[in-house]
Amino acid sequence: xxxxxSPASTLPNLSLQPNEPGGGTPSCPIAAAVAAMAPRLPGVxxxxxxxxxxxxxxxxxxxxxxxxxxATRAEEVAKLAGVSKGTLYLYYPSKDELFKAVVxxxxxxxxxxxHELVDQFEGSTSDLLHLLAHTWWTRVGASQASGLLILxxxxxxxFPELAQFYVDEVVAPSHALLxxxxxxxxxxGEFRPMDVTSVVHALIAPLQFLILYRQCTSxxxxxxxxxDPERFMTTQIELLLRGLEVRHPAPPxxxxxxxx
Length: 260
Known about the structure:
Elements: E1 17-20, E2 23-27, H1 29-37, H2 42-67, H3 74-81, H4 85-91, H5 95-120, H6 125-141, H7 147-155, H8 160-187, H9 196-217, H10 229-244
Antiparallel strand pairs: 1-2
Helix pairs in contact: 2-3, 2-5, 2-7, 5-6, 5-8, 6-8, 6-10, 8-9, 9-10
């Protein structure tokens, strides 16, 4: 006589089982099913969607710096970011727009924060210039974003509209930021009155040289004249400050007791 299976016997085996005969990490069908569903859960989807633009920009920056604008393809960016080409175009409809978004995220934002720093800084302008330079190095110069300068220099003729965008979004605002800092020092009496535009160019030139020098020597197996970026920037700013700062005349020497 056949026996009707009890309800319990029809349930799947939910006991923890080792992954391998010899033991291992316990697994559970329910836990495995939940893990498989996790990317499709609403909260996970929302977090993933929110992070997607940043992931696309990271991938684009990496490929732009490595391969250049002309050689970078949209499908490569999408693949590196782990999305489809169609998803990339939902956020950035063209490679030009993608490049602009990269510049805004990695350069324009840093310049905007620099303006906030100038607004809030309460110390001397000499200290402010040091802080601006070292902040730039931390956020841009020492990062992959520094390669955007090399990229635009190499491909400006092929992409004149993007070169103009770079000038409008990066070059001009950078000059305006440093001009504010220099004018602050002149207005406070710390610096001698000088042509502010020329002083700004004198500040920017060493930073551009630093990026170019590191780019050129990074592929060399040996460099007989290594350059320490932090020390280099400090030296350049100190040299510039010695020419900017107001020099107060030294007080006359008091006559010695033997002379009186």
